[in-house]
Specification:
Blueprint (H helix, E strand, L loop, with lengths): L1 E8 L1 H14 L9 E7 L5 E7 L5 E6 L1 H14 L9 E7 L2 E9 L12
């Protein structure tokens, strides 16, 4: 038996999660503040952060699914949202929203209630 949890994130929450993680790791972001994000779901789900620099030019950076997933898990943990360690996590775009799908397997032995004798 498995349990499936789905956490749906707003565009602002996805941006905050990725920006927080990238700043913490001192990784690059867009040149200028992030204005919006877009999702691509070809092979896995990646996101593109779109920024506007001081000259008013748009620039973008693509973030792959593994980094986005890690950013969302960190975002949840920093906000005291329980995250099961022993679970499969993957991203889906559902109704234009980014969704973190968490699948947990129940490995405990089933007790049938029979006393056997």
């Amino acid at each position: 038996m498995k349990e499936l949890r789905c956490l749906v994130f707003s565009e602002q929450e996805v941006m905050a999660a990725v920006v927080e993680r990238r700043k913490k790791l001192r990784e690059t972001l867009t040149d200028g503040p992030v204005q919006r994000i877009s999702y691509q779901s070809d092979k896995g789900v990646s996101i593109t952060l779109h920024g506007i620099n001081a000259q008013g030019e748009e620039n973008a950076i693509v973030i792959q699914d593994t980094e986005v997933s890690a950013a969302l898990v960190n975002f949840c943990m920093s906000r005291k949202i329980p995250m099961p360690v022993d679970s499969d996590k993957y991203l889906q775009v559902i109704n234009d929203g980014l969704t973190l799908m968490i699948t947990m397997r129940f490995n405990k032995a089933h007790k049938s209630g029979h006393s056997g004798g």
